[in-house]
Write a structure and sequence with these properties.
Largest sheet: 2 strands, antiparallel
Strand content: under 5%
Helix content: 55-70%
Order of helices and strands: HHEE
Shape: elongated
Strand order of the largest sheet: 1-2
Radius of gyration: 20 Å
Number of strands: 2
Low-confidence stretches: 1-8
Number of helices: 2
Length: 110
């Protein structure tokens, strides 16, 4: 498995995007809570509407997690994270120091 390369965007851009997604995530939380409250007050729940809002919230949460992972990689100067255990590894690492997973493809001589 080939190593994950360091991000191609700057740390400042990653941080700007992270703040923006974090703000939108907080707004979605607020909106979902308000929507559930309004439905409860009216004693008329629409699960399809709640599920749609929750799905949007999950998408933002996943995007924020990815941006935080990129920021962590950038800060640590790491080449990537182990696909098996998630431990960060440096450039030139052939195997994960945590679980031993092979991090780079090897070419077998013929």
């Amino acid at each position: 498995m080939a190593p994950v390369d360091a991000p191609a965007v700057s740390s400042a851009e990653i941080e700007r995007r992270r703040r923006d997604v974090s703000r939108r995530l907080a707004e979605q939380h607020w909106d979902l809570g308000g929507l559930a409250y309004e439905m409860a007050v009216r004693d008329h729940f629409r699960l399809d509407v709640l599920q749609l809002q929750a799905a949007r919230l999950q998408e933002l949460d996943a995007e924020l997690s990815q941006l935080e992972r990129l920021a962590k990689l950038e800060d640590a100067g790491a080449a990537g994270a182990c696909p098996s255990c998630g431990l960060l590894y440096g450039r030139g690492s052939g195997f994960c120091s945590g679980c031993g997973t092979q991090l780079v493809d090897t070419v077998t001589p013929q």
